[in-house]
Design a protein that fits this description.
It contains 5 helices and 4 strands, in the order αββαββααα. By secondary structure, it is of the alpha+beta class. Bound molecules: heme C. Heme C binds next to helix 2.
């Protein structure tokens, strides 16, 4: 008598495989919707694009144990308050330019990309821009002519001139400002911020 026990039968394992695949598919669909909700601009961690009209700080939160972005008073980018649509258009232009010029070939954005040049997640808040009052213009002139306006990170590396127009540079600055407002659980760690009004 060589009867196969039920747990070793082919039909049992076929059913197990079908149920596990089906169950995982449901979980995957749920997680996809959950993630999309969390990464959409206008959610709690990823502010709406019009955040570029506000001052953005980076402050230590003792409860969480790391720096987090704080959204302050009005501080319109390039001195102009933008509607949600206008802000989205400008940030999108910056994003498209960043993709078209393949900035991730050297930089990381939110940790993704290459490690040749600094991470750009909080570049808007970098001390390298000197003071808050001159930052926007410094960023535009750097992006349009990085060879002349580079500041050096002790690596002796230089960013090449990528032929960025003034309009594209404004878009990139808007994108970088918006990205710096994203709550990234303290990433990048140990980032030294530009001295800002209201910083304690
Ligand atoms: C060939 C490599 C390379 C590419 C491509 C590149 N960069 Fe850079 N980038 C650098 C290097 C190197 C530095 C540091 C320059 C310095 O210190 O003077 C830098 C610095 C910067 C900074 C200042 C960083 C900070 O923390 O303040 C910004 C902003 C920046 N790049 C934006 C961009 C954008 C936007 C693009 C795409 C349009 C881009 N870079 C493409 C190499 C690159």
């Amino acid at each position: 008598m060589n009867k196969t026990p039920w747990w070793a039968s082919e039909s049992f394992w076929r059913k197990v495989a079908v149920w596990i695949t089906g169950g995982m598919l449901v979980i995957l669909i749920f997680l996809t919707f959950d993630t999309v909700k969390k990464i959409t601009a206008g959610s709690s961690r990823v502010p709406a694009y019009s955040v570029i009209n506000k001052r953005i700080y980076y402050r230590f939160n003792p409860e969480r144990g790391f720096m987090e972005p704080v959204i302050g008073d009005d501080a319109p980018l390039f001195g102009k308050m933008l509607s949600e649509e206008e802000a989205e258009k400008l940030v999108s232009l910056g994003k498209m330019t960043i993709q078209a010029k393949n900035c991730m070939n050297c930089h990381t954005l939110l940790g993704n990309g290459a490690y040749y040049a600094p991470d750009l997640t909080k570049a808007w808040l970098d001390q390298g821009w000197g003071a808050e009052s001159v930052r926007e213009n410094m960023m535009v002139s750097f992006l349009m002519d990085p060879k002349t306006n580079g500041r050096g990170y002790g690596t002796m590396r230089r960013m090449p001139n990528l032929g960025i127009t003034e309009e594209e540079a404004h878009g990139i600055v808007a994108f970088l400002k918006w990205m710096s407002s994203i709550d990234t659980n303290g990433f990048p760690n140990n980032f030294k911020t530009i001295p800002q009004e209201g910083d304690q």
